[in-house]
Design goal:
153 residues; mainly alpha; Four Helix Bundle (Hemerythrin (Met), subunit A); two-stranded antiparallel ribbon; 5 helices; globular
Length: 153
């Protein structure tokens, strides 16, 4: 829907996907059916979902379905920075935890916060400023995690 410029409908679908994302883990825990592989699969699916959301927004911006620019830069560029930051936040956590840092859930831009911000941007029409904000806070979170990982390792 973002690719077609349907921001409100895209926001509604994003909200529904968030609800289902929370429910799948809750159902697994309630049925006592959690596994380490399930956690890995959930994280991989989350990254695919993130990529599709950002790709839809980028397509909408490039095709003209969504019209906006911010600070003299095309908004698709801000969206790419937000997508890179989102992936690096997740990657940094996974890599640091694999190296022995313990649980590394520090930072101001966890996935849920990023998705909530994108929903707010879609519902209010302020997608441009929200994308720039997400781009900035994801890279701040990345730095927070790197600093925390360095201290722990």
């Amino acid at each position: 829907m973002f690719a077609r410029g349907e921001l409100v409908l895209g926001g509604i679908l994003l909200l529904l996907s968030g609800i289902f994302d929370v429910l799948d883990g809750a159902v697994a825990r309630a049925s006592n059916f959690t596994t380490p592989f399930g956690g890995v699969l959930d994280s991989v699916c989350d990254r695919y979902a993130d990529a599709l959301i950002f790709a839809g927004i980028i397509y909408g911006l490039v095709s003209g379905s969504i019209k906006s620019s911010l600070f003299g830069a095309d908004l698709w560029l801000w969206c790419i920075f937000a997508m890179i930051g989102s992936f690096m936040v997740s990657y940094t956590r996974a890599r640091a935890e694999a190296a022995g840092s313990g649980v590394l859930n520090v930072g101001i831009a966890e996935r849920s916060e990023r998705m909530i911000l994108l929903m707010i941007g879609a519902f209010t029409g302020f997608l441009g400023p929200i994308l720039a904000f997400v781009a900035i806070i994801t890279h701040i979170t990345l730095l927070q995690r790197i600093i925390s990982a360095k201290g722990r390792l």
